[in-house]
Amino acid sequence: MDHGDGAVSLTRLPVWQSLAVHAGEMRGRRVASLFDADPERFRRFSIALDDLLLDLSRHPITDETRDLLLDLARRRNLPERIEDLFQGRRVNLSEGRPALHTALRMPPEASVVVDGKDVVPGVHAELRRMESLVQALHRGEIVGFDGRSVTDVVNLGIGGSDLGSAMAAQALAAYRREGPRVHFSSSVDGRDLRALLQRLEPATTLFIVASKSFTTLETLTQARVAWGWVAEAAGGREGAARHFIGISASESAMADFGIAEDRRLRIWDWVGGRYSVSSAMGFGLAVAVGMDRFLEMLAGMHAMDRHFREAPLKANLPVMMGLSMVWQLSHLGATGHTVLPYHPGLARFPAYLQQLDMESLGKSVTQAGEPVDYPTGGILWGEVGSNAQHSFFQWLHQGTGRAVVELVVPYDEADVPPEHRDLTLASSLGQASALMSGQAAPAGEANGGHRHYPGGRPVTVLLFRRLDPYTLGRLVALHEHRVFVQSVIWDINPFDQWGVELGKRLAGRVLAAQRGDSGAQIDGAARGVLEWVRSREGAGSSSDG
Ligand code: F6P
Predict the structure, then answer these.
(1) Rounded CA separation 428/421 (Å)
(2) Ligand 1 atom 3: residue of nearest CA
(3) Digit-coded pLDDT (tens) for 232-243
(4) Among 91, 195, 203, 401, which is disulfide-ready with 144 (CB 3.0 to 4.6 Å)?
């Protein structure tokens, strides 16, 4: 794959150096005064896409900034890289494979050829298999070992095999349909699952073992416990098997575990875990809201995919959002990104984005493996906006750190009681104004510094009409592509996660040492902890006595 200018060190590009100079000028300018100078500013720095609005007018950007950022995007061959992504080229260079989450929501008549084979028919075949299982569950046709219908479905998975489906099931709670209750369990310490099992009946519970690799320690440990729980009640393996569905890219690992052939849902190695909510990994979600709603979510994602692929860079939501993040993180000293949904259903959206963003952009080498000499991805965190206002907003307003503040706000949510209706928009926009404009301390007041609001915080406002499946799909795809844009500019691979792999491997060694393997290679600190814990065995805690 030709990387064109992408292979030239980013910091040596003249446009990058121009941006660095321009950043020096912009640091001294107040965004509030840019509004005073240009009554059209809001219109010129916001982009509408149907009922979505991306408002970047509170960022320290001018026409010059935007022109430079768009020039940078072209120098990094962003339009070509977007085509590479959609056409199934090997954009995940370190693992030598494509990243085709966009193919998961393409219509059946589309075609994406990878290694001489069109992947779209396989995607739709899998969606149909998923649909028939979901419908059978809703019709009560999936029965347990004593012939009763399944009443509860438990998703056992972690990271990308949990967060997307769990986040979306909560977000779309208003669309929940009659049928089995859906639960998610991802913890490794077992109490979460045990608490769940105490409430459920083995005969009417179905487990989804969701793991792309089907080797993840946390998930497989949970799955074995669940299997034992069912097998004990069912009187053996035969009875237990009908209580399990597997979702993985490894057919053989599912078979080895004991998942029956007609209960294996497939994903492909070209679906990254954190990009997998639109695949069979969304099975739990589809059970919760019904397959029709799940497909509406995919339609929303596809609409955003098309926009990303087709809209001019300047009017392209993910492109402009990604470029504004690069501007902040690489040039203006921001180290983080806080996502604040003003909708309680989106409570887990920040956690979902945290994996998407930080696992994708937490890299410090280029695609070619060379160290970068510029900051890349920052810290992403968040919380429901109204709650965050009463916890960490103080840091945003008056702290010494700098983060991009993203307010995700519905403007016409159904079912909101009238006395609350205007409050959501008012409180989010009020915070946005305070963050942007700030306020001087009252003149002559002793200790006035405490009441000085510096303002000048970069604020993105993302407005949407209401949180339906289609809109949720658009929001998720918007962020997937925004992350991709940043990765292209920084020339890093957003689709691998080698850093996490090492920790997984070392955990295996610590476990071996804990279980008595004296030859297990662990570091002195880990050994020290194990010895200390061992020395405490039977000692109890200070509160026991
Ligand atoms: O945390 C690392 C990770 O590899 C994530 O990328 C992934 O989503 C998660 O573990 C779960 O992996 P799997 O689906 O293979 O169990």
Answers:
(1) 12
(2) 159
(3) 999 877 789 999
(4) 203
